[in-house]
Amino acid sequence: MRTAAFFDLDKTIIAKSSALAFSRPFQAGGLISRRAVLRSAYAQFVYLVGGADHDQMEKMRQFMSQLTAGWDVATVREIVAETLHHIVDPIVYDEAVQLIEEHHLAGRDVIIVSTSGSEVVEPIGAMLGADHVVATRLRIEDGRYTGDIDYYAYAEAKADAVRELAEERGYDLARCYAYSDSVTDVPMLEAVGHPHAVNPDKELRKVAAASGWPVLVFNRPVNLDRRRLPPARPTLAALAVTGAAASVGVLLWKQRKKRLI
Fold first, then answer.
1. Helix axis angle, 118-128 relative to 73-88, nearest 10°?
2. CATH number at residue 109
3. What domain range is 171 assigned to?
4. pLDDT single digits (tens) 46-76
5. For 175-205, what is each residue's pLDDT tens digit?
6. Is 185 a catalytic residue?
């Protein structure tokens, strides 16, 4: 049966909140005010320092819904396309890129599952070579966002999306992997056989310790050049805080070595 690796995006693949990272380009494009940029910067700081629990995620959802109401969809997509590499390249974790490459070499699909909007997540996923993206979808009428949400990729909804994809594509979830930094993604992590906590917030760290999940530390944001991706190499063994992740890294290395022989 097929297998896949499911990745959260913010603080798992990239070092910031993708939803807030584009606030300055959106201001330059006339979509938001300076006050909104400052508020976004504060929200980014709170998120980076303490993570985001359910209450904080709800506040962020309301903030983003109100902020985007009336935005022209074409303008948003144009701004994202023009500034994507400038904004995202410097904040992609090198360890995450290596891990994505390892999973591809092992024959697994790589799927990004993010609470951020699809207009941001899909281009990032394409840049990273993801096979599929699951992201929040904002409601659109007459080419503009209404401020409502058609699909919110959050908490249990992420786990539901993972299970639906497994059914559609024939993934054996017991042999699949998942990675996230947030306790709100515990349902998604529990849906697979190989869950990993990446730069976990305090609550997820507790869950990981109680469940015996590997804990990975990503701390090397790098400028990403898709034309010259670094060669894949076993990184899990070096990054994992627990011995379980070391075993996964050795297994991936052996699988790759067999292909080379």
1. 40
2. 3.40.50.1000
3. 4-260
4. 555 555 666 776 777 787 788 888 999 999 9
5. 999 999 999 999 999 999 999 999 999 999 9
6. no
